[in-house]
Design brief:
EC 3.1.-.-; disordered N terminus; alpha/beta; 4 helices; YqgF; hydrolase activity, acting on ester bonds; nuclease activity
Length: 164
């Protein structure tokens, strides 16, 4: 479960007239996958890998990327255990999402941050990457693909929790 500081449930309707560009982040300690999508097509595309140092990004570069793509919402993948309980990485992802929310507000970037379940996205990303020949070695990064899978699921189902 998400902690009590993150209680605003967020849903969206694909029938809304406002189309939003949404950025998905697959948080990691050494790298983060980034994907882009929109609420009209409800699809997402892998964008890039983003370097992390012990779970911390280059905040200036990350905020610049969000601004450059004019994202109107950021979805941070929340790695939960299979039974839905918090994981160690999930706790770090929550902390990252709270900091991102703070950094966006401090930079006057109106872009809500939402946490969304990302269970099994890495496994599915690896399967798809092998199937389509996108990777040739087992240890090649698939984080941007995992981010696109997580973001696509959020775009279609709209489940997550928005930070205050």
């Amino acid at each position: 479960m998400l902690d009590s500081s993150i209680q605003n449930n967020v849903t969206h309707s694909p029938n809304t007239t406002t189309v939003q560009t949404v950025m998905g982040l697959d948080y990691g300690i050494n790298k983060m996958g980034i994907a882009l999508g929109n609420t009209l097509t409800q699809t997402a595309t892998p964008l890039r890998q983003f370097a992390m140092k012990n779970g911390q990004p280059d905040w200036v570069a990350l905020l610049a990327l969000i601004s450059e793509w004019q994202a109107q919402r950021v979805i941070v993948g929340l790695p939960l255990n299979m039974d839905g309980t918090d994981s160690e990485l999930g706790n770090r992802a929550k902390k990252f999402a709270r900091r991102l929310n703070h950094e966006l507000k401090a930079a006057h970037i109106a872009c809500p941050v939402t946490l969304a379940d990302e269970r099994l996205t890495s496994r599915e990303a690896k399967r798809l990457a092998w199937e389509y020949g996108l990777i040739k070695h087992e240890h090649e990064p698939i984080d941007a693909i995992a981010s696109a899978i997580m973001l696509g699921s959020w775009l279609r189902h709209g489940q997550g929790e928005t930070l205050p």
